[in-house]
Amino acid sequence: MHKSSVQIIIAFVAMIIVSVLFPKLIYGQDRLQDSKLLDIQHAYQRGEIDVETATLQQFRLLYQPSDNFGQEREIIKCATPAFMFLHQHKDELSGETLSKIENYEAVRLSSKSKLAEESYISPSGKFEIIYQTSGPDSVSQTDN
What we know:
The protein is 52% helix and 7% strand. It contains six helices and two strands; from the N terminus they run H-H-H-H-H-H-E-E. Strands 1-2 form a two-stranded antiparallel sheet. A hairpin with a 6-residue loop joins strand 1 (117-121) and strand 2 (128-132). Helix 3 (36-45) packs antiparallel against helix 4. It starts with a helix and ends in a 12-residue tail after the last strand.
């Protein structure tokens, strides 16, 4: 066997060992087990709420400020389940519900446009990083 073949086999075996010992490295992040979006969808599947209520609850959770006095709004990192649910059930929703969802999105976009944004283009010119310099998701102004 050539030296390069042996190196390839060793690398392959090492990858298998690492993936067995550290499976989280394969996925890059932990899967959220207790997502409130999925809880709402499961309530719909069990027949506890109708499709209109399930859809509106998910988008309220994503876009409306918290109703809990003094408590911060829970951050939902991934809105994909809500948008997939909307796409799957769009034909079943009333125009009023679709309009409310569009309004949630419009308010979010208009408030986001008020935030100061900066950009940085990499020296190669292949990448542009856009970041916010104001608002809750802004980068630290004191960090160098």
